[in-house]
Design goal:
The complex is a heterodimer of chains A (276) and B (272). The relative contact order of chain A is 0.14. The longest helix of chain A has 30 residues. Chain A has 13 helices and five strands. Chain A has 276 residues and is mostly helical. In chain A, 54% of the residues lie in helices and 8% in strands. With 272 residues, chain B is α+β, with helices and mostly antiparallel strands. In chain B, strands 1-2 form a two-stranded antiparallel sheet. Chain B starts with 5 loop residues before the first helix and ends in a 7-residue tail after the last helix. The chains are: A mainly alpha (276), B alpha+beta (272). Chains A and B meet through strand 1, strand 2, helix 2, helix 3 and helix 7 of A and helix 2, helix 3, helix 4 and strand 1 of B.
């Protein structure tokens, strides 16, 4: 039991956060709870603190909408929060799509689909930044929040809170895409919201650190990591994971049997050597 | 991204770095253009839904679509569950709030709970306020339209369901009396919508007794025509003000060189 907790503690906490947030949102709509109202696009915490999706606000700005004060405060709250705890912590700790794509990634590992396809991935992880830029261009040209009208993320969290409709089809598409087309396809290659939070996360404080002297080169961390390129230093150098693409999901920390990976805050002042 | 096939490697020199870079950039730009057009076309399609009724205080549809963040706080604030968020399959712009009056109309709460909660101003408090105080009676969600062919009051059957249901009783819907020539001794009591008063709440549509409502709400820009600058109520000082911004446009019609007979008979082939 202790090992179970030790090997899955962050995973369990993440699932509890993800599901718990959705329950709070659902309760607000269904039973009038006032703890957390709205959805992940914009919400009010405890009837007082506004929180808004900064990427959606950016699209609104590009589309030429007038940004209201409440929205700007909400954007500031969310941005500061993720600047502190790691940009893509949203992806692995909050976003409900993560449940779907993690399930697909697990299926790939269990069934061995990864192995039949060979190692070459047919797409670049840089794609999300192109899509991010494209969404802002389209928002500007068409005067509409381009990604918000097609976002499967919104379809899922809005669907959970306000009724799913055919949103289940979007969930299934993402699952099948990640399972059969591209490993970590949606979250790791396409999602512009993830791309946006990667950029925010470049500067964030909480980081996974690698201790090379403990590493036995088992590479379990790279197998479970949804963004394995960020662990390039494993077995080579003791460095923190600096890339904003790390989602702080902490699966690498759990699967490491040798304490070669751990959470730590990044030291902006003393650590010139790591290139921070 | 840039794998060349093994057989190519045998036959040809590998691509130079410069060429590879240029080709990769070109490929990226091409893919972005392609994706951009598909994306734009799709978004254009899914946001074109002229028959969507919005909550009170909503900005004009174009501005509303770019300002609404789709959080659903208005939906949660509505005590009557009138408002819905468009789901995939509803054929409305995804995630935006709307209502279907025949199912649940807007009950025009005096405190308008759905509007102040809006974090982005897509629901604009000032548009539903008079002298700085919230006033639901100036809301403009749509306009009631009567189909006098299916309205049984126009048949001569007595029904004033819509008139009674109207929250602006006697103002937004008035009854027009007219003699029923068919019976010779009865009156028609025809409902007439006063377009400048109607808020589009839809309580009339909900109350209508016919199988499919004979009075229904349409968005104002769908329901209303527009006279334009060529027609002015010369007897109305207010209406004459519209001419101040009118722009003059002189048109000339070329005189026909044909004989009058030919000219009159010209173009008749269209009729046959």
């Amino acid at each position: 039991m202790a090992t179970l907790w030790n090997n899955y503690r962050y995973l369990i906490l993440r699932r509890m956060t993800q599901i718990g947030l959705m329950v709070l949102y659902f309760g607000a709509n269904a039973w009038g709870w006032t703890i957390l109202m709205g959805n992940l696009s914009s919400s009010i915490f405890l009837d007082f603190v506004p929180m808004s999706d900064p990427y959606a606000a950016l699209q609104m700005l590009a589309a030429g909408a007038v940004l209201a004060t409440d929205l700007l405060i909400g954007v500031a709250v969310v941005t500061i929060f993720y600047l502190l705890i790691g940009g893509r912590a949203f992806c692995s700790w909050v976003c409900p799509v993560n449940l779907i794509t993690d399930a697909a990634a697990m299926m790939r590992r269990v069934t061995g689909i990864d192995r039949i396809q060979g190692l070459k991935q047919p797409a670049s992880r840089q794609m999300r930044y192109w899509i991010l830029a494209l969404s802002l261009i389209i928002s500007f040209v068409m005067g509409i929040t381009a990604f918000e009208f097609i976002s499967p993320i919104s379809m899922v969290h809005r669907g959970i809170v306000f009724g799913l409709g055919f949103g289940w089809a979007a969930m299934l598409i993402i699952f099948l895409f990640d399972l059969f087309v591209l490993k970590n396809g949606w979250c790791g290659h396409i999602c512009p919201l993830g791309g946006f939070y990667s950029l925010v996360g470049k500067f964030s404080l909480i980081r996974v650190h690698h201790l090379e002297e403990n590493c036995t080169l088992c590479m379990k961390c790279k197998v479970v990591c949804p963004e394995s390129q960020v662990l390039h230093m494993v077995g080579k150098e003791s460095l923190p994971v600096i890339s904003g693409e790390c989602t702080n999901c902490a699966r690498c920390i759990e699967v490491c049997d040798d304490n070669a990976l751990e959470f730590s805050t990044r030291n902006y002042i003393n650590n010139k050597k790591t290139g921070e | 991204m840039s794998e060349s096939r093994p057989e190519n490697k045998k036959k040809k020199q590998p691509l130079s770095d410069r060429r590879k870079f240029i080709l990769n950039m070109a490929r990226g730009a091409g893919l972005a253009t392609m994706g951009g057009f598909i994306w734009s076309a799709y978004v254009d399609e899914v946001t074109a839904s002229p028959l969507t009724l919005r909550p009170p205080g909503a900005l004009a549809e174009n501005d509303f679509l770019k300002t609404c963040i789709k959080c659903g706080l208005c939906v949660e604030a509505c005590p009557y569950d009138t408002l819905l968020l468009a789901k995939p399959g509803d054929n409305k712009p995804l995630g935006t709030p709307y209502f279907v009056p025949r199912d649940i109309p807007c009950y025009m709460c005096p405190d308008i709970p759905c509007v102040p909660v809006c974090p982005t101003g897509a629901l604009d408090e000032t548009s539903v306020s008079t002298d700085g105080v919230l006033d639901i009676n100036v809301a403009d969600m749509g306009l009631a339209v009567v189909d006098d062919n299916s309205c049984i009051a126009f048949w001569g059957i007595q029904c004033d369901a819509c008139y009674r249901a109207c929250p602006l009783l006697g103002e937004a819907i008035t009854i027009e009396y007219e003699k029923n020539e068919r019976t010779g001794k009865h009156a028609f009591m025809k409902p007439v919508v006063q377009t400048d008063v109607c808020t589009g709440c839809g309580m009339c549509e909900k109350a209508c007794v016919t199988e499919k409502p004979a009075i229904f709400i349409l968005p104002r820009e769908v329901a209303e025509g527009k006279a334009g600058d060529y027609y002015i109520k010369g007897w109305d000082k207010e209406d004459e003000k519209r001419l101040e911004n009118a722009t003059a446009e002189t048109t000339t019609t070329n005189l026909s060189k044909k004989s009058a007979m030919d000219s009159l008979n010209d173009g008749l082939e269209d009729l046959y």
